[in-house]
Amino acid sequence: MKHFIIQKFSSKKTSSLILVFVILLSSCCKDHDCKCPKDDKIDYTEFFIAHAGGAIDGYTYTNCLEALNLSYSKGCRLFELDLTLTTDGKIVAVHDWINFKKITNYSGTIDDTPLTEKEFLSLKIYDKYTPLNMKAINLWFRNHPDAILVTDKINDPKRIYDDFLFHKRVIMELFTWEAVDIAINLGIKPMVSENLIFGSSKKSIEMGIKPLPPPRNSEIEQILKDKRIEYICMSRYYCIIGSEDFLRKLKKNGIKNYVYHLGLPVPISGQTAEKYVWNYEMNFCYGMYADDLDLLTTLLNEQKTKR
């Protein structure tokens, strides 16, 4: 989908015609291979993962208790949390330590050095939101039995198996085939990260995972089939740079691809990134990591009205 070709034309009339043409070509149901937003039998909660707990009061990447509660109230049932370790080896929800220290007005050095669990719990995010350690995460999921945890940043299925109490309600984004195999053996659902599909990613490199030679599409299809993988995830970038046919084929093969980095350029102004992906890019993915969950709420409310 080469949406940005409209920038090459100076005529407003010509640009408008091309824009309409592109929208029609990229309609989410043009190939009848995605779920139509108007189908009242769809479980819309399957398509939205609350990114880092979901946005709250305009803030993103908080991974906080209040964000989980807000996202749940909007109808979300899939919740991503960025999990990492403290200096004393405890799992906590932090996207990265530099950002966490900034948004909690940490009085010490602002760097990527982890805090202790006690230090972590003593801070408030933006002076009012509650950080989550594994004890709080387990309590929240105990109290919300229809919620599913989607992990990020951690590549250790055994540790999640030992620390998270609800093994049937967790999907782990994983960055090595070894970790994928361990998760499968433990009965944890793996979500294959983009670096295993395209050879590398910025996130995996930051985690110290070496890039792989870019595999052929056919190799990936066979590996996913052999391992009976249900979930993959990747940057939305791959939906707009020439991988569309490959991703469309994976979707037809039953692979559920969730995309993040929704904030990449959206060709049509006046729409949230979530709404744009929903309207025009669902041929290439199954769902999305959403900050703004208002679209999900709208879809659920419209569905109730029809019933």
Give a concise summary:
The protein is of the alpha/beta class and 307 residues long. The protein is 37% helix and 14% strand.
How would the blueprint of this fold be written?
Layout lengths: L11 H14 L22 E3 L14 H9 L4 E8 L5 E3 L3 H7 L13 H6 L11 H10 L4 E5 L4 H7 L6 E5 L2 H10 L2 E4 L1 H5 L3 H5 L10 H10 L4 E5 L8 H9 L3 E5 L12 H8 L6 E4 L3 H13 L1
Parallel strand pairs: 1-2, 1-9, 2-4, 4-5, 5-6, 6-7, 7-8, 8-9
Antiparallel strand pairs: 2-3
Radius of gyration: 20 Å
Tell me the helix content: 25-40%
- Quaternary arrangement of the chains shown? single chain
**DSSP summary: helix tally:** 13
Distance between the termini: 35 Å
Tell me the count of domains.
1
> Poorly predicted ranges (pLDDT <50, ≥5 residues)?
1-37
For the record, the CATH class is Alpha Beta
Query: Major β-sheet, in short?
Result: 8 strands, parallel, barrel
In the CATH classification, which architecture applies?
Answer: Alpha-Beta Barrel
Structure write-up:
This protein has 307 residues and is an alpha/beta fold. It has one domain: Alpha-Beta Barrel (TIM Barrel), CATH 3.20.20. Helices cover 37% and strands 14% of the residues. The chain has 13 helices and nine strands. It has an eight-stranded parallel barrel with strand order 1-2-4-5-6-7-8-9. α12 (273-280) links the parallel β8 (256-260) and β9. The protein is globular and about 50 Å long. The model is unreliable at 1-37 (pLDDT under 50).
